[in-house]
Amino acid sequence: MSELKSTKSIDRVYQFVKQYIHENALSPSVRDICKGAELKSTSSVHTYLKKLDELGLIEYRPGMRRAIILKNTDSDEAEVTPLGSEKVPSNVVRLNCIGKITAGQPIYAHEDYSDYVYVNKSLIGSNESFLLRVSGTSMINAHILDGDYIIVRKQDSCDEGDIIAALIGDEATVKRYGHMNGRPYLFPENDLYEPIPFDTEDCKILGKVVGLHRYTIN
């Protein structure tokens, strides 16, 4: 295969991946890419995805289904509309991942805009929203697993039983909000963890968890 033909194929794969993620809010499968980029070989798709990963345009995780993340870049290319012509649908919005949050013992909250996904606006309404990547297993009975990206709708109040992202001082955690003996607590969804008191001045609700994004299903 000539270098020119290979370069065109790589670009065609990249443009298709961007368009698919923008329109569907999840990454395409290898077979989707084969069909959409008009390629016959799945092995060629894997090769092109690895090259795009090396170029820093995507994060690709071989062996995992629908595990392609568009990466931010400093160039205008990152903001080009799909295929250079089609605009992102008006009912879709990009959510940035602003850091890591534990489903376990709280950890320090930090900002990290390295990942993002596109979601339908019907999920979040008009509220400001963001992503946080989950670390830990304290919420597994609520089907929130280590490595998931939770979708958080920003708000400073919640109802009994809501799953929320919260700060305790500078430490962030995801838990279910509730009361015990008249006192507010953050409750895990794993019997190995204990409830955390949530009634001091340094306790703050970041927002309500309204969904999650996962790249694999075990």
Name of the CATH superfamily of the largest domain = Umud Fragment, subunit A
Percent helix, as a range, is 10-25%
Mean pLDDT reading: 80
Query: What general outline do the C-alpha atoms trace?
Result: elongated
Q: Class of the largest domain in CATH? A: Mainly Beta
Q: What's the story with the biggest beta sheet?
A: 10 strands, mixed
| Rg of Cα set | 20 Å
In CATH terms, what is the architecture of the largest domain? Ribbon
Regions with little confidence, pLDDT below 50 for 5+ residues? 73-86, 107-111
Please count the beta strands (DSSP E, at least 2 residues each). 12
Q: What is the structural class?
A: alpha+beta
Helix tally equals 3
- Encode the helix/strand succession as letters: HHHEEEEEEEEEEEE
**Integer count of domains:** 2
Strand content: 25-35%
CATH T-level fold name of the largest domain: Umud Fragment, subunit A
Distance between the termini: 37 Å
Structure explained in plain terms:
The structure is a single chain. The chain is an alpha+beta fold and 218 residues long. The protein folds into two domains: 9-70, Orthogonal Bundle (Arc Repressor Mutant, subunit A); 92-213, Umud Fragment, subunit A, CATH 2.10.109. It is 19% helix and 33% strand. The chain contains three helices and twelve strands. It has helices at residues 3-24, 30-36, 42-54; strands spanning 58-60, 68-70, 92-102, 107-108, 116-120, 129-135, 149-154, 163-168, 171-180, 183-187, 196-197, 203-213. Strands 3, 4, 5, 6, 7, 8, 9, 10, 11 and 12 form a ten-stranded mixed β-sheet that branches. Strands 1-2 form a two-stranded antiparallel sheet. A hairpin with a 2-residue loop joins strand 9 (171-180) and strand 10 (183-187). Helix 1 (3-24) packs across helix 3. The chain is elongated and about 65 Å long. The two termini are 37 Å apart. The model is unreliable at 73-86 and 107-111 (pLDDT under 50).
